[in-house]
Specification:
alpha+beta, 7-stranded mixed β-sheet, 5 domains, Immunoglobulin-like, 10-stranded mixed β-sheet, 558 residues
Length: 558
C-alpha cells in the first residue's frame, strides 16, 4: 500500500503539471464468483483531455488481488500503467450549522447565564446571614448583656434585657427569612444544573453523530494517454478475496411416471466491503489460483553413495546407494504392473490432482448479494432427469421394501459435487452427497420405505439339519421368504439375501437350491432375485444352503 502511494506520488512529481488527475465513480457491470474468490468487472464513462492523465477509480473493494488487474479502452487511448492505491479520507461535517445543535447551544448558554446569576443571589443570602450572625454575637458579647458591668442598676439591666430580646427576635426572624430564600435558590440551582447536564449530553450525542467519519478509499489508478479530448468508456476487472460459493441441490420426485427434477442452487457469500446490487452474476467452478502453466521436467541425476538404503516400492524390496530412496534405481529389481498409475504426492502426503476444465453458470437475471459474509441462496438451473423406479427389499434386515430411482447417464448433467436434499411426493426423505466419480454412469437414489410391500423371513426346521460325513460336519439351512404386494400396480422387485463367506479353505459354503433363479456372487455371498409381482400377489421364495467344515473345528461368525 505504501509502495503504491510512493509510486503514484513519484509519477505525479515527474510529470508535474503535464498530467491531470480525475476521480470517477464506476459501476459493477458483472461479477463472476469462483469457489474461493470472485472477479469484479466495472465500467465508467470518462471525459479525457489531450495528453497524459490519471484516471482514478474510487470506492472499490477492500480485498483486491493486486496482481490481477486488467483494463480496456478504445484503440486511440493508450493505457500506460495500472496501479492500486488507498487514500485515507476524512469527511467534512457541518456541525455548527445543524439546527438542533444550534438550538441546544442557545439553551445551554441561556442556562449558564441563569446559573451564574442565581449563584450570586445565593452568595448574597449567605453574606446577609453572616452579617446577622455577627450582629447577634455582638449583642450577646456586650458586658451589660452578660451582667458583668460594674455599677449597673437593676433598671438598666431590665431595660437592656428588653432591648436584647427585641433585637434577637428581629435577627432570628430576618435570618429565617433569608435562609428560606437561600434554600429555594439552591433548589433552583440544582434543577438548573441537572437540566444543563441533560442538554450537554444531548449536544455531545448529536455532535458525535455528525462527527467527520474517516475511512480508506481503495482505488485503481490508470495512467493513460489520449491524442485528443474525448469521452470514452473504460472497463476494469480484478479478483477479490473474501467471496465464493457452494453448490447445493434439491432432488424432487413426484409419481413414478414423472421425471425427476434436479434443482441446482448456490450458496453465495461475500465480504468485500461493497454490496453487489442488482448485477449480472455468474458462477464458476474454476480456481484462478491454480497453476495454468505446463509442468517442466528437469534433469534427473543418479549418483553413487557409500550409504546403503533398503527401500520398498510397489511391494518389491530393493537396495540403493544414497541418502534418498530415489538416489539409485535398478529396473531389473523392481517390477511395476503394466496398468499401474503413479501419483505425485505433495509434502502433506495427499494425492494432488489438477482439473483444468470447469463449469460456468450464467444466471439469467440480476442478483443482489450484500457484503455481510453470510450465505445467500440463489437459483442456478433446473434439470429434468429420466428415472427408472424399482423396489428393493432385504428381508434379513428389514421387512419393508424401499423404492429406488435409477438415473442413467447422469454424468452428462453439468453439475458439481455437493449436498442434495431428496424429496418424494413433497416429503423430505433425506440428504445425499452427489459425487460424480462415486456414482459412475448411474445414480441410484433411495426414495424411502414403501410399507405396501412387505416380507416375512424364517428358518424352516423341516429343511434344516446337521450331519457328520467322514471327518466333516455338514450343516444345512433352509429359509422361506414370503413377500406380499398390496399395491394396485404391477412392479419389479429386487430381493437380496446372503450366505457367509469362508476365510478358510477347510470351510466350504454353497447355495444348494433356490426358487426364482437368483444370482449368487460367491465373492460377496450376496444372493439377488429379480422378481415381477402382480397387484395383490403374495409369493413364497425358499432357498437352501450348506456349510461343511471339519467336525473338530470351532467356527465363529454366525
Amino acid at each position: 500500500m505504501q509502495k503504491a502511494l510512493l509510486a503514484f506520488s513519484m509519477i505525479l512529481w515527474f510529470t508535474g503539471t503535464m498530467a491531470t488527475e480525475k476521480k470517477v465513480e464506476s459501476k459493477i457491470r458483472e461479477v463472476t464468483v469462483f469457489l474461493n474468490n470472485a472477479q469484479i468487472e466495472r465500467t465508467a464513462t470518462v471525459r479525457l483531455v489531450s495528453g497524459e492523465q490519471f484516471i482514478i477509480f474510487k470506492g472499490l473493494e477492500t480485498a483486491i488481488n493486486t496482481g490481477t488487474f486488467r483494463a480496456g479502452s478504445p484503440s486511440d487511448v493508450i493505457i500506460n500503467e495500472i496501479m492500486h492505491n488507498s487514500e485515507y479520507i476524512v469527511e467534512e461535517s457541518d456541525v455548527n450549522n445543524d439546527p438542533l445543535i444550534r438550538s441546544l447551544q442557545r439553551k445551554i448558554r441561556s442556562l449558564n447565564d441563569s446559573i451564574y446569576k442565581i449563584g450570586w443571589d445565593i452568595e448574597d443570602k449567605r453574606r446577609k446571614l453572616g452579617v446577622l450572625e455577627q450582629e447577634k454575637n455582638l449583642l450577646l458579647q456586650n458586658p451589660i448583656m452578660k451582667g458583668t458591668s460594674i455599677g449597673d442598676s437593676l433598671d438598666l439591666l431590665i431595660n437592656a434585657t428588653d432591648f436584647l430580646r427585641t433585637q434577637l427576635n428581629e435577627i432570628n426572624e430576618a435570618s429565617i427569612e433569608i435562609s428560606q430564600e437561600q434554600y429555594y435558590l439552591e433548589q433552583d440551582l440544582a434543577g438548573m444544573r441537572n437540566r444543563l447536564s441533560v442538554l450537554q449530553n444531548q449536544l455531545n450525542e448529536k455532535q458525535y453523530e455528525i462527527q467527520p467519519s474517516t475511512y480508506y478509499d481503495y482505488q485503481v489508478i490508470l495512467s493513460v494517454y489520449s491524442e485528443k479530448e474525448q469521452t470514452v468508456d473504460f472497463n476494469i476487472s480484478y479478483l477479490v478475496n473474501n467471496a465464493g460459493w457452494v453448490p447445493i441441490y434439491d432432488i424432487r420426485a413426484g409419481d413414478e411416471d414423472d421425471p425427476i427434477e434436479l434443482v441446482m442452487k448456490a450458496k453465495v457469500y461475500q465480504q468485500t466491503g461493497i454490496s453487489w446490487e442488482n448485477v449480472q452474476l455468474n458462477l464458476s467452478s474454476n480456481n484462478p489460483n491454480l497453476q495454468k502453466q505446463k509442468p517442466v521436467l528437469y534433469p534427473w541425476y543418479l549418483y553413487e553413495s557409500s550409504t546403503q538404503i533398503v527401500s520398498t516400492y510397489g511391494g518389491a524390496t530393493r537396495k540403493s546407494s544414497g541418502t534418498d530412496a530415489n538416489a539409485a534405481y535398478y529396473a531389473d529389481e523392481v517390477q511395476v504392473e503394466e496398468d499401474a498409475v503413479l501419483y505425485y504426492n505433495n509434502a502433506g502426503g495427499s494425492q494432488t490432482q489438477q482439473q483444468f476444465s470447469y463449469q460456468l453458470y450464467e444466471l439469467n437475471r440480476k442478483m443482489t448479494v450484500p457484503s455481510d459474509g453470510q450465505y445467500h441462496q440463489l437459483p442456478v438451473k433446473t434439470f429434468e432427469l429420466t428415472a427408472k423406479y424399482e423396489h428393493h427389499i432385504v428381508p434379513k434386515l428389514d421387512c419393508n421394501a424401499y423404492l429406488i430411482a435409477s438415473i442413467g447417464d447422469w454424468q452428462g448433467v453439468d453439475i458439481l459435487n455437493g449436498e442434495a436434499n431428496i424429496y418424494f411426493q413433497n416429503t423430505f426423505i433425506g440428504k445425499i452427497h452427489l459425487n460424480r466419480r462415486a456414482f459412475a454412469d448411474t445414480l441410484k437414489l433411495s426414495m424411502g420405505e414403501d410399507q405396501r410391500i412387505f416380507s416375512e423371513r424364517r428358518l424352516l426346521k423341516s429343511g434344516s439339519k446337521n450331519s457328520v460325513i467322514g471327518g466333516n460336519l455338514v450343516k444345512e439351512y433352509k429359509y422361506e421368504v414370503k413377500i406380499t404386494n398390496t399395491t394396485g400396480d404391477s412392479l419389479e422387485l429386487t430381493m437380496e439375501d446372503q450366505l457367509p463367506i469362508s476365510q478358510n479353505e477347510k470351510i466350504k459354503i454353497e447355495l444348494m437350491d433356490s426358487d426364482g433363479d437368483p444370482e449368487y456372487d460367491i465373492s460377496t455371498g450376496k444372493i439377488t432375485w429379480k422378481l415381477k409381482m402382480e397387484p395383490g400377489e403374495t409369493r413364497i421364495i425358499t432357498f437352501r444352503s450348506k456349510v461343511t467344515h471339519p467336525k473338530d473345528m470351532t467356527v465363529v461368525g454366525w
